[in-house]
UniProtKB/TrEMBL annotation:
The CBM2 domain, residue ranges: 226-331
Protein name: CBM2 domain-containing protein
Gene3D superfamilies, alphabetized: 2.60.40.290, Trypsin-like serine proteases
Organism: Plantactinospora endophytica
Origin: domain of life: Bacteria
Length: 331
């Protein structure tokens, strides 16, 4: 009973709060959660959507299970029940990628232990390149060390039927553990948000093999992380060459909104890099902040069109973030 106050009072019934963690996730479904037919056997990679159809999926590893299999989280061994994420609808055996259909993919991934809600927001995806430092946030590793495995340095990209990427854990620690398969591999932005880089495939001590997100896009179409950012632009940042003291990068800006006549792209470098040379754009840099504006001959970007430019910089390659086009944050 509430006391009589003379003030009109109304009551609103809300859904009961439920616990969320890697071990007991609920929709919308996050990366880094333990998933399986019943009890966890693998790790959810990223919540993704097909940008052309808006269909939702969870990305993980193909070797975890067959097409048509049901995937659950929060399995209760006493009752034999759990929360259904969805069914595996497509996979690529050579690339070790698989997508699980779900109507509620989420834009976060777990980065804490197995039984907490510590998560990071996924704001886009990144191409991978030698020297890039990444993290993997697998379910089993989270149980053993309380969080993700980081300092994974990208070494090289195989050019064979598997097309995997190999990396090394620089501290000599275990790069991944059984049950981490399919889990998210990602780059961390200076603001704590992350970029999807791929999904875990295999490991041996500090050695680490994963499938990159760009290859998953080749496998399944225009997949993008299920970010909460609604944007009219996308940016691709690709390191085209690197050497001991610097690197070269190609930046492509895609316009998904109204036609643009005159553009300005801005970003912040993550590690003190300085632009040394550039082409197809007018560059200005102040500290880590870089602004690139159009040349006279590439000022227009039609709807569905793109423009690209390049630069060289000193220091180690790093993925800038966030990118803003004429003030709008891009995916």
């Amino acid at each position: 009973m509430t006391p009589a106050t003379g003030v009109r009072t109304s009551f609103l019934e809300r859904d009961r709060m439920v616990e969320r963690s890697r071990a007991n996730d609920s929709g919308p479904f996050d990366g880094g959660a333990g998933i399986g037919f019943t009890t966890p056997g693998c790790t959810a990679g990223f919540g993704v959507r097909d940008a052309d159809t808006d269909a939702g999926y969870v990305l993980t590893a193909e070797h975890c299970g067959a097409i048509g299999s049901p995937w659950h989280v929060g399995w209760n061994t006493n009752t034999g029940t759990g929360t259904l994420v969805g069914y595996a609808v497509d996979s690529n055996d050579d690339h070790d990628t698989m997508i699980i259909s779900t109507s509620v993919p989420d834009d976060h991934l777990y980065v804490g232990g197995q039984h907490d809600e510590v998560r990071a927001q996924v704001v886009g995806w990144t191409e991978v390149f030698p020297g890039q430092l990444l993290c993997q946030s697998g379910y089993t590793s989270a149980g053993e060390i309380g969080g993700p495995v980081c300092n994974l340095r990208v070494d090289f990209h195989y050019d064979d039927i598997e097309d995997l990427v190999e990396a090394t854990q620089l501290d000599g620690d275990e790069a991944a553990r059984g049950g981490d398969s399919g889990g998210p591999v990602y780059a961390v932005n200076p603001d704590g948000t992350v970029l999807a880089a791929g999904t875990t495939t295999r490991s041996a001590g500090p050695g680490f093999g994963f499938q990159d997100f760009a290859t998953a896009r080749d496998d399944y179409g225009n997949l993008v992380p299920a970010t909460a950012i609604a944007s009219t632009c996308r940016v691709s940042f690709v390191v085209s060459d690197s050497w001991g003291t610097g690197y070269a990068a190609i930046v492509t800006v895609y316009n998904d909104g109204p036609a643009i006549n005159g553009w300005s792209l801005g970003w912040a470098f993550p590690g003190g890099q300085l632009v040394q040379g550039h082409w197809n754009g007018v560059f200005q840099q102040a500290g880590p902040a870089v602004t690139v504006t159009n040349e006279n001959d590439n000022a227009s970007i039609p709807t569905g069109g793109a423009v690209n430019f390049g630069f060289t910089a000193n220091g180690s390659p790093g993925t800038p973030a966030p990118f803003t086009l004429n003030g709008t944050i891009c995916n």
